[in-house]
Amino acid sequence: MDFERGNMDSEKAEPKHFIQHEVEKDLAAGKNDGRVMTRFPPEPNGYLHIGHTKAICLNFELSKQYGGLCNLRLDDTNPVKEDSKYVEAIKRDIQWLGYDWDDRLYFTSDYFPKLYQYAFNLIEKGLAYVCDLTAEEVREYRGTLTEPGKNSPYRTRTVEENLALFEKMKNGEMEDGQSTLRAKIDMGSANMNMRDPAIYRVRKVHHHRSGDEWCIYPMYDFAHGLSDAIEGITHSLCSLEFENHRPLYDWFIDNIDVPHRPRQIEFARLNMTHTVMSKRKFLRLVEEGHVDGWDDPRMPTLAGMRKRGFSPSSIRDFCRRIGMAKADSTVDVAMFHSCVREELNREAHRYMAVLDPIKVVVTNYPENQEEMIRSKINQEDESLGKRDMPFSRELYIDREDFMLNPPKKYFRLAPGREVRFKYAYLLTCTDVIEDESGNVVQINCTYDPESVGGLAPDGRKVKGTIHWVSAKHCLDAELRLYDHLFAAENPEESDDFTQALNPDSLKVVNAKIEPLLASLPSGERVQFERVGYFYTTEQHSEQNPIFNRILALKDGWAKLKAKLGI
Questions:
Q1: What is the mean pLDDT of each run of 10 residues along the chain (566 residues)?
Q2: Which of 184, 270, 297, 429 allows an S-S link to 54, with CB 3.0 to 4.6 Å?
Q3: What are the Cα distances from residue 283, in Å, to 94, 301, 371?
């Protein structure tokens, strides 16, 4: 996706967003020697999700647009929560999305020695001190939004005292929570972030890369901007919640001798209905067994979306369409699904599958006869040609496509009613067979042999069209029907977001599919006509066909049925 040209696959020019304008102002003013350098800096404490894609696309595409580069930097300053498995997952997801950082993979932990020296220099300048207040006392001293804070009693320590104490912190002579290194700024500042923020804390925890070399770790606000400066980042693009952190970002840059001065610009984060956007909450879903891992196809993680069958190009297209804004808002998930459906409708090959089969016997069709019905591979692209579907005396249709006593506006099969079996013939229901409980177990029909292709030779109009498979030739398949993980539009509004989970987010059905589907390789996206879009799973094989539903098709009758309470 190119944020000037639009989608990677589109040449349509689009209006520039405010960040592009700011970058161009900087270039026109001769800043950064005409360079544009961005970065994407996730913390390796979980998997990337749809909320991250906006930042990924923005950073990689913006740098590309202006002839620059984009780094991938893992912000690994909190060893309690971070893990190498998340590093690998992040790398895999970004590459799957369509981006590459070449040889510019960095870790904030790469800069631990330099960051320590920067902190040391702040102490030498009298701009940082070691504080022994407890976490509770720090909160008490910090004040409120309406009341200023008060100075720590340790704020007046001499430079020599602070240097010695900071060295003791580094050497492991202090316990977790015993002391912090704090910036000496202004406890009366209207911006709470400027009230002597912590810049180093003691954490005697094994780090996924540096091992036990360090027992003190820099805070995000300290490490983030300085890492940008070390890497020569020109534009540090952050989500809107960091806007109030920008003065602190600049304060560190101003008061430390760094090789470069980056500029922070904030944009609205991506919020979407029917989901949450928190790795902490995703971790809870995983740990409590609500989902089957971070890559569960119901999860809005990139790994889950990949497993479900969403394409990287449709995700990039979605990010392009939502654009860049300066104010937070929530995007309806239907917009994302629309991007996905548009692409699938354009590209997916068509096949037949019956999810809830009921047998149809064509009584006037010869018992031992069978034929191949020609059908279009994709109605949107005639160049893809046609495929052959076997037709025989016994067929399967979906149970929802038949009613004994249909209401008005029901145009599918019913006693005495003629419908079109897609691509094949016009069939009329003559009678049904019921079991002892009164359930229909077989539908008997006659066909019009002159209506091959589904067209009436006399020009009579037939409104209903249904899908089918040949009972003699079809195969059994497992279909995993995925839906919203959360039933509520805004699950965050619940007292406990897990209360908003959708109990029907996954249904597994045994379906009947046309035989060609079994031979498809894994990773194929197809449309089951009148049913939905599906994806062949990694476990899919000719002997064991397994499909994930990407999305359902829009179903006009389903909406009417719900409205009528049928």
A1: 41 81 97 97 97 97 98 97 97 98 98 98 98 97 96 98 98 97 98 98 97 97 98 97 97 97 96 94 96 98 98 97 92 95 96 98 96 93 93 97 92 96 97 94 97 90 95 97 96 92 97 96 96 96 96 65 56
A2: 270
A3: 20, 11, 53
> Cα-flanking dihedrals φ and ψ of residue 275, to 5°?
-160, 175
Catalytic residue among 73, 157, 195, 279: 279
Residue corresponding to tokens 């497993």 = 307
Is-catalytic flag, 343?
A: no
538's CB contacts (< 8 A; 6+ apart) are: 307, 522, 523
Q: Which residue is catalytic, options 4, 43, 478, 492?
A: 43
CB of 330 closer than 8 Å to CB of 273: yes
Tokens of 229: 């400066």
Task: Count CB atoms within 10 A of the CB of residue 158.
Answer: 10
Do strands 546-552 and 475-482 pair parallel, antiparallel, or not at all (unpaired)? parallel
Strand stretches in 117-272, DSSP E: 128-131, 180-183, 198-202, 216-218, 235-239, 263-267, 270-272
The label of the residue with tokens 């950064």 reads 32
**Cβ partners under 8 Å of residue 7, min gap 6:** 1, 313, 316, 317, 320
Domains with residue ranges and CATH for the chain: 18-271 (3.40.50.620), 350-474 (2.40.240.10)
Of 54, 269, 308, 412, catalytic: 269
Q: Is 43 a catalytic residue?
A: yes
Identify whether 342 is a catalytic site residue. no
The residues, ordered by sequence, that sit 6+ positions from 83 with a Cβ below 8 Å of its Cβ are 44, 45, 208
Report pLDDT for 2.
Answer: 45
Q: Which contiguous run of DSSP H or E holds residue 550?
A: strand 546-552
